[in-house]
Amino acid sequence: MSDYYLHAGLPQPVATPLDEPYWSALRENELKIQRCISCGGWQWGPEWICHRCHGDALEFANVAAEGVLYSYERVWHPVHPALAEQGAYLVGLVELPQADNVRVVGNILGDPQQQVTIGAPVRGVFEHHEDAERPYTLLHWELR
Amino acid sequence: MSNSMRGQVAVAGVGETDYYKRGEAPEAEFKLALSAILRACEDAGIDPKRVDGFASYSNDRSDPSRLAAALGCEELRFANMQWGGGGGGGSGAVANAAAAIHAGLADTVVVFRALAQGQFGRFGQGPRRNTIAGDFAHTVPYGLMSPAQMFAMKVVRFMHDHGVAQEALRAISLACYHHAQANPRAVMYGRPLDEAKYDDSRWIVEPFHLFDCCLENDGAAAMVLVSAERARDLPNRPCFVLGAVAGSDYRAGASVHNTPNYASSTFKTLAPRLYDMAAVGPADVDVLQSYENFTGGVLMSLVEHGFCAPEACNDFFVKDRFLAPSGDLPLNTSGGNLAECYMHGLGLNVEAVRQIRGQSTSQVPDAEVSMVISGPMVTPVSACIFGSEATL
Fold first, then answer.
1. SS in 3 state form for B359-386?
2. Which of B122, B135, B138 is best to mutate for the A interface (most A CBs within 10 A)?
3. How many beta-carbon contacts under 8 Å exist across A and B?
4. CA nearest to B132 within chain A
């Protein structure tokens, strides 16, 4: 339990038909983002059609789990009982330059009080929750 | 602008219940809605049975057909809900009501919002369930789940891009609390705020201290809109709708924080449309009510509405500028969502009307152009400008 960045007890992610390949890929230490087969454009969060060309032939393609910190926040007030004893924690918004700069959300590992710099390069860290009823994986980030 | 509804519709009456801390309303939410509507009709000098339309927002639970039945309305001709959450639809509901009257769909339209969070659950709490799917599965497991957490991410980026200091946010909060001290209706009446108290208050999520965050309240507010022609024959000084718009810019609804124009209050495309319809500019605005879900939303709203260049925020956002009666941009003169009441921002529209009538507890002398910015950072958002007869 203590290996997880946040205390246990938050709602656990469950895949939908729209984002299932994303969650499955995280289980395998891979990041897959939605891409349009027709025009090659990336998009996130996932949609049923491509917002550029309106094609509905979409795939989930591999992207290196490397990005740039677009924004972040240091959270103090717990709004969920699972976080009551958590203390401060960091949430980051990470751009993926290899996927048209779409953004993903994850925690920023390390000291919650660390100085965080927008624009800093970050590397993905896969956090496997094997003890969950339906095991899942989260994608966090650490400064490169 | 051809076929504009500028000056064609007016607010004839406003009504509010008492405002309570969340969970403390002594009456059912639906009764609160009815009470506010009855007061607004009484204020307007209009028989409630003549109301033939209702407009609300944010999935208000008080259904117009049930309201019409409970009030004994002779006929229902307009039952409107502006899509979207938060307070983004506050001025949108005004726009919809005004458009309906201007187009002849209805004659007497009530804009209302009723909230009893104790009866139906709170906004500022995370989801209490074991699993989560869809868009929120990509944020909630990382501890990003409350409105403050969703919006702080935008504000951090905006403040980074433009070098904005914490004191800019503080000035907004201080102005709201200052005005609430003159307003006996305000939940924070008698509870003043100063710089030290703000600085010492705990962080909710950086850059929001406790006093950067709105209240959570129970109560209801309502406004009665009629044609401008009819409003002139009613008891109150008419408060004309000069402009009212709702919407958002390109892909504002992209999920998982992928809105292209991210560090934004969502008003980039709307603000020019509002000023165009109202035929005024920011320099003409005598008094401003700007929705504070969080002070950072006010910061970006004022920038996107042209009151201040983004790089000038540290000079512009100082308390004295925002204080009635003498500041050059009196802001949130009832105390707003931070210190009067969080009625999903409809209280801001009511206060904007009071300013035109000369009835605010922090009255701006000779207020002729009175503006409201509703629900920044969500989508759709909305804004409206009210004017006195002199502005027509």
1. CCCCCCCCCCEEEEEECCCCCCEEEEEE
2. B138
3. 135
4. A13
Could you confirm whether B342 is annotated as catalytic? yes
Q: With an 8 Å Cβ cutoff, are B138 and A104 in contact?
A: yes
Q: Which domains does chain B have, with CATH numbers?
A: 9-121+213-391 (3.40.47.10)
Mean pLDDT of B279-301: 98
Average of per-residue pLDDT across B10-30: 94
Listed in sequence order, the residues at least 6 apart from B7 whose beta carbon sits closer than 8 Å to its beta carbon are B228, B240, B241, B242, B387, B391, B392
Does a structural domain hold residue A13?
no
Domain membership of residue A103 (yes or no) is yes
Residues of the domain holding A139 = 20-143
- Name which of A44, A71, A86 is nearest B258 (Cβ-Cβ): A44
ipTM of this complex prediction, to 2 decimal places? 0.98
Q: Mean pLDDT over residues A46-71, rounded?
A: 98
- Report the C-alpha gap between A60 and A42 in whole angstroms: 9
Mean pLDDT of A67-92: 97
A24: pLDDT strictly greater than 90: yes
Give tens-digit pLDDT for B72-99: 999 999 999 999 999 999 999 999 999 9
Tell me whether residues B137 and A75 touch, CB distance under 8 A. no
Judged by CB atoms closer than 8 Å, whether chains meet at A6 and B142 is answered as yes
B19 as an active site residue: the answer is: no
Residue A120 lies in a domain: yes
Buried b (16+ CB within 10 A) or exposed e, A97-132: ebbbebbbbbbbbeebeeebebebebebbbbebeee
pTM over cut 0.90 = yes
Establish if A78 belongs to a structural domain.
yes
- What's the number of domains chain A is made of? 1
